[in-house]
Amino acid sequence: VSLSQFNNNEHALRALGTSCDDLLDEEIFSRHDEEIRDFLLCGAPLNEYPLPLCTAVSGRQDAASLFERASKSNLFIRSVDGKEYAIHHIFQTFLENKLKTTAPDRYENILGSAGDWYAQADDVQAAAKCYMRGRQHEKLIQIIAVLLEKMGGIGPVLDAFKREEFILTIQYIE
Fold first, then answer.
1. 63-109 pLDDT, tens per residue?
2. How confident is the model at residue 138 (pLDDT cuts 50, 70, 90)?
3. What's the CA gap between 14 and 133, in Å, rounded?
4. Which residues contact 133 (CB under 8 A, 6 or more apart)?
5. Which of 64, 70, 96, 156 could in theory staple to 44 by disulfide, Cβ–Cβ 3.0 to 4.6 A?
6. Mapped to the 3 state alphabet, what secondary structure does the chain carry?
């Protein structure tokens, strides 16, 4: 069974009174032990899966072995280079939706932890995206202040915005 088959047959599944999410949940996700399910849900809001990030957001030092177990269990996960993993986008979307609906506070906290990890790694843009998605407004304001400081204050940012606004206006007129 492949995820592309699920995706292509969504209309047929709905006619049967089910959805891709229901099928993924009942036939794949729920058949694995709670340790694997919980670990995968911890990574659900992430857009990438490097081991140090997964360790930080899950609090699990055994992230590599959990990814390997999930990969060997045909959970649509593969190792990219032994230090980063990839999850099929349909399965990742399923996991993210499941976490958002069953534990919205946990979803936001995981994104806050991911933002902290990116901020520590000096990836201000990725941190800001996580804080924004996780509704971590205080941290978002702090990281924007760091970004502004790196860019030389608000003046250059406003100048760039004005240039961009001017360009967009001209493109709209054309």
1. 999 999 988 887 888 888 878 899 999 899 999 999 999 999 999 99
2. very high
3. 30
4. 45, 111
5. 96
6. CCHHHHHHCHHHHHHCCCCHHHHHHHHCHHHCCHHHHHHHHHHCCCCCEEHHHHHHHHCCCCHHHHHHHHHHCCCCEEECCCCEEEECHHHHHHHHHHHHHHCHHHHHHHHHHHHHHHHHCCCHHHHHHHHHHCCCHHHHHHHHHHHHHHCCCHHHHHHHHHHHHHHHHHHHHC
